[in-house]
Every structure is written in structure tokens, then in C-alpha cells.
């Protein structure tokens, strides 16, 4: 409700600021797709800003540009048929400072990009052109892996009052859009088609508060919708993600990886994930940050490599280890294929440790730092089963379970463990877990039990259903755990 009230107030305040319209041609901006308009577009934005605010309107045409900077009280409207096209020349982008991008804003208020038009960054070719300059020695690549620093599509930092609505964003070099330490951000009805290169996240929310992402579509070669936290003194707070559809060659919805501050009061409601290589939902805190008060409701995932992955790690080997508490996941349905879920897409997820047995959903803390108070309610996980000890065997004897590595400093993806001893759900270093009306379905016989609990305490299971073909076997294995009610 607080988000809705803020949205209404923000819309009312901006309707007056943005009431005056300026046609792009007024500033000599050309729509021929050939003329470089960077200076003309920036002149228009600066002029409207100085005049107290308004809308820079782009009608039908292709508008070529490098880096531009949005200013307070200025909106860009891309009408249907208008395409803002990224320059292919890497040196047309501002490589200096924290916001290396096609469209950026730093410490601005009341800004917007909206309409039925398109932002096409031409990122695949721009990336190749940057790599060409790296190989020739003109641009430094500290990573030396042909994934150099590249311009993002949109990067807004420390801004307040942002609307991104209706537009299509496609083919950026790097993350499609990043909003960092912003307040009052509304993303509505947008389409993201970003499979141009590696690391093409659909949207990244970094240490922002009062965020609404709704009714949008994301197709990305990296995480589709991703929350991050880069600073200990801030966090992602009061975020709603609802009514969205997403596909990814990484994760569908991810809280992490970088988690220094934390995540609090996050609502993820009525979303769909499909053809996704990694987890439909990942919540990770490997860098000392906190996670609390997370609600995920009505998430449907089809043809995704993993259902859910909740993880505490410690990549920095610090005394400050992250925490995760109060997570509710309800009305979840996931179908996991036996094969690679993103096969055939241009940038597929990596083939790691193949062949391997298909991983279970997992909630894994660290020894002495358990994940606490997680509820799974009204959940169906439809798993292929088919796990074979001939591929790789992790058994359930004490010796075998003790050999499952902690991997505190590993990159937090479900695949980092290679093999786990359950096919349905693996719980390790957890406390206060509730499984209510949870169904696990294995389509083929699996050598592993459905559920393994290791260092799990105060776990309540009610109305549990486990379906697996073949002879009945013990489906729940408990090890080093207490107060398990099943």
C-alpha cells in the first residue's frame, strides 16, 4: 500500500513538470539513423531542464546517439516507431565515472523514459568493436577474458522519482539497466530483449528503496531480474516485483550475488519463469549482508534448471557472515527438465560438470550461521528424477554426508556443489523450517531420497507428498538434526 501511495503522489507531481512537450527536431535531432545526435539530444535535455522541465519527444525514426545524460524534471518520450540507436563507435560513450552507459543520470529527480518506442543499443557489434580496441592496446581490459568493461543501456545512480514505462530495451553491451541507490522507481510494462552478449542482465536494482516492477517481460542472457547490494550502509528495501514474465540463461529472479548491505521487505508476486538455465529463484548472501522479510507468492516456472536456491556464504573470509531470516515462499510450481533448459539460445548457460544428476531445491546456510524461519507453503516441484549412482554418487551414510563441501567462498549457484544427496530438497545448516502442503514429484526413478536434512533443527512438515515410480523407499533422511516433525 505504501508503494501505491508513493506511486500516485509521484505521478501527480510529475504530470505538471512534464506537461510541456518539445519535439526532437526542434533541437536539430535527425531521425535518419546515420547522423550522430549525441550533442543535439544533450542540448535538448539541458535546455528543457533549464526551462523547469518537460518532455523531449521522439517521433517515428531512428535516432543515432552515444552517451547522453538525463537531467531533473526531464522525460524522454519514444513514440511508437521511434528507435533510439546506440552508436557502434566505442569512443562515443563516456567511459569515465561510475555510470558508463548509453543513458545515464546521477543525483537527479523526477526523470522518465516512456512510450511505445525502442532503445536498441546495438550492443553485440559495440562489444566486438571494444574487444577489437582491447586487442590493439587502445582500451585496457583488466580481466583479460574478452569481457571488458562495456556501456550499459541505462544507469541511474542516486536519483529520486524515476519512471520507466512501456518501452522496449534491446541489445545492450552489458546489463540492460541498472538503478543504484535510487528512491521511488517505477518500471511498468516494459519489454527487455537482451541476448546480445555475456552478462546481459535484464534489470539490476542495487541498494534502492521503494521500487515497483510490474507487468513486464525480460529475456536475458544473464539474470533476468536481479537485486544487489554493494554497500554496508544501504540496502534494497521495499521492493515489489509482480506480474512479470522472464527467461534467462542464468537465474530468473535473483537476490545477489553481491550482498554487502542487504535486502528487506521484498515482495515477489505472480511471476512466471521459463527456459531458464539456473534457478527460478535464488536468494544469496555471500558477502556479509542480511536478508529478511521476503515474500514470494504465485511463482510458476517451466523448463528451468533448478527450483529454489537459498544460500549463506562467506567469500571474503570475514568475521561478518551474512544472515537470512523470515522467507515465505508460497504457491510455487516448478517443472524441471532432464535436459538443458536453455538449449538453442544464442548465449547458453555453461555446461558444468556434465553429465551430472539433476540438483534438488536447496536451502544451505553455513555451520554456525543457519538460515532461519523459512516457510514453503503450497509448493509443487516436478523433478525429472533419473539420478544414477553410475554418473556420480553422494550417499547418505554419515561419512558421505560429511564429505559434502561447505564451499563458503564459492560463487553462490546451486551447481557449485556438483552433486547433492537428495533429488527433491536438501536442507543444511537451517533452523525453523516449515514445509506445508509441499509435493515433490520424480518422473523417473532416482537413487537418492527425496529430502535430506543435515544440521537442521525445528523443522515441521505437514501434508507432505512425495511421488516417485518404482518400489517404495525411505524418502526423508535425517542426519545431525533435532526437533524434526514429519
Helix share, percent: under 10%
CATH class: Mainly Beta
C-alpha Rg, in Å? 24 Å
State the end-to-end CA separation: 37 Å
Organism: Bacteroides oleiciplenus YIT 12058
Family: Belongs to the glycosyl hydrolase 28 family.
Pfam family, one: Glyco_hydro_28
Keywords: Glycosidase, Hydrolase
What features would you describe in this structure?
The protein is mostly beta strands. It has one domain (2-485): Single-stranded right-handed beta-helix, Pectin lyase-like (Pectate Lyase C-like), CATH 2.160.20.10. The chain contains four helices and 33 strands. The chain is elongated, with a radius of gyration of 24 Å. It starts with a helix and ends with a strand.
Summary?
The chain has 486 residues and is mainly β. It contains 4 helices and 33 strands.
Secondary-structure map:
Blueprint: H1 2-17, E1 21-23, E2 32-36, H2 38-50, E3 54-58, E4 61-65, E5 68-69, E6 74-78, E7 82-86, E8 101-106, E9 109-115, E10 118-120, H3 123-135, E11 152-157, E12 160-165, E13 168-170, E14 177-180, E15 183-188, E16 191-194, E17 203-206, E18 209-214, E19 217-220, E20 225-229, E21 236-242, E22 245-248, E23 253-259, E24 262-285, E25 290-312, E26 323-335, E27 361-364, E28 371-385, H4 398-402, E29 425-444, E30 451-462, E31 465-467, E32 476-479, E33 482-485
Parallel strand pairs: 1-3, 2-4, 3-6, 4-7, 5-8, 6-9, 7-10, 8-11, 9-12, 10-13, 11-14, 12-15, 13-16, 14-17, 15-18, 16-19, 17-20, 18-21, 19-22, 20-23, 21-24, 22-24, 23-24, 24-25, 25-26, 25-27, 26-28, 27-29, 28-29, 29-30, 29-31, 30-32, 30-33
